[in-house]
Amino acid sequence: METAADHRVPARLRAAPSWLLTQTATHAGRLVQEAFAAAGARRYHYALLAALAEFGAASQAVLGRRCGIDRSDVVAALNELAERGEVVRSPDPTDRRRNVITITPEGQRQLRRIDERLAAVQDTLLAPLAEDERQQLTGLLTRVLEHARRS
Amino acid sequence: METAADHRVPARLRAAPSWLLTQTATHAGRLVQEAFAAAGARRYHYALLAALAEFGAASQAVLGRRCGIDRSDVVAALNELAERGEVVRSPDPTDRRRNVITITPEGQRQLRRIDERLAAVQDTLLAPLAEDERQQLTGLLTRVLEHARRS
DNA sequence: CTCATCTCAGTCAGACTGACATTC
DNA sequence: CGAATGTCAGTCGGACTGAGATGA
After folding, report:
1. What total number of domains does chain A contain?
2. CB A20 within 8 A of CB B145
3. Quick one: which of A87, A82, A36 has its CA closest to B16?
4. How does DSSP assign A80-103, residue by residue?
5. What distance in Å separates the CA atoms of residue A66 and residue B1, rounded to the nearest whole number?
6. Whole-angstrom distance, CA of residue B73 vs CA of residue A97
7. Which of A5, A32, A59, B12 has the fewest CB atoms found within 10 Å of its own CB?
8. Residues A116, A41: contact at Cβ < 8 Å?
9. What pLDDT, in 10s, does the model give residues B78-88?
10. B10 within a domain of the structure (yes/no)
């Protein structure tokens, strides 16, 4: 027998911004993952493709910094993208420690496919909020994140 | 050579609430984890102790529902709490499938210890926001989360 | 029989650490 | 020399799945 009282969330958790953040992020992550799965992608793939499409070819280290992904995880994600022909890895002639990563036309297509699915996710996620509230939320999160990056 | 341009975040990511959420949640998670580590605890431990302190003894299934933790993970977390004497597991005489979980005085102390550390974390996390903005953020996240739970 | 509960054995993506060889 | 890069191997907490045994 499952009653409503079984689902009462402790006040300590409800009142803690850190808990609210991780819970909503978990929910958002579920939605995002479902959307990506249909395209055979993961979060890291999308972030890397987005960085390549916007700023052009870059080294793996730079990609990691732009996307907030660890160096070592960039390696694995790019392996997968390269296997699917969405990026190309070539040695940097000007610095032989580096690889130059380039997005391919197939990568561009994949990026656009994911873009559409992702837009739908944001809408599902923010369904209870009005447009100005969505912008408020985005603004507040951005400021918290900015502050975190600078410290 | 690491320039500022290396850290420019793709617009697609910056504009996606789902990305902002997971990034800020990751940062919050780091802060929380550091704070808990000093007390030898993890997030799940705190959530379970909070539920027990606020609503009293309960079965594992109910605890899972209240804290948003999967039944199977509740098992492991309670094992750890029981080993440290912070909770007691005893069979429910009225329903022999269930265990009744009770918080101990040691568990209460641990909960209070973590409470203090956690308050400091929220302050660090929300440092860039004024008081009314913090409440805005909390309110918006709560509504998004409520909507998620109901669907 | 159906359903809930507890438990165990896994998987999975994401975040992170430490090490190493190579190159700047 | 110290520092950056790419790679590999591994850890960790959190979220989740599937199955099994027990009992309401």
Report:
1. 1
2. yes
3. A36
4. HHHHTTSEEEEE-TT-TT-EEEEE
5. 15
6. 44
7. A5
8. no
9. 999 999 999 99
10. no
Helix (H/G/I), strand (E/B), else coil: A56: coil
Report the candidate in B4, B84, B1 with the shortest Cα–Cα distance to residue B39.
Answer: B84
For residue B119, give the CATH number of its domain: 1.10.10.10
Q: What is the DSSP letter of B86?
A: S
Query: Which token pair is A39?
Result: 């395209």
- Among B111, B47, B51, B53, smallest CA distance to B84 is for B111
Contact partners, residue B52, CB within 8 Å, separation at least 6: B58, B63, B87, B101, B102, B103, B107
pLDDT at B1: 72
Q: What pLDDT digit, counting tens, does each position of A53-81 carry? A: 999 999 999 999 999 999 999 999 999 99
Q: How far apart are CA A47 and CA B10, in angstroms?
A: 8
Distance of CA A29 to the CA centre of its chain: 9
- Given a contact cutoff of 8 angstroms between Cβ atoms, the answer to whether B137 and A140 are in contact is yes
Is residue A19 in some structural domain? no
Give domain status of residue A71, yes or no: yes
Q: Which nucleotides of C are covered by protein (CB under 7 A)?
A: 4-10, 13-19, 22-24
* pTM beyond 0.85: yes
The boundaries of the domain holding residue A58 are: 52-125
Question: Which residues pair with residue B99 across a beta bridge?
Answer: B91
Residues with CB under 7 A from strand C: A 1-2, 29, 33, 42-44, 68-73, 95-97; B 22-23, 26, 30, 59-62, 71-72, 74-75, 78-79, 89, 92, 97-99
Contact: A54, B11; criterion CB under 8 Å: yes
Contact partners, residue A64, CB within 8 Å, separation at least 6 = A70, A71, A73, A74
**Assigned domain for B133 exists:** no
Q: Is B99 helix (H, G, I), strand (E, B) or coil?
A: strand
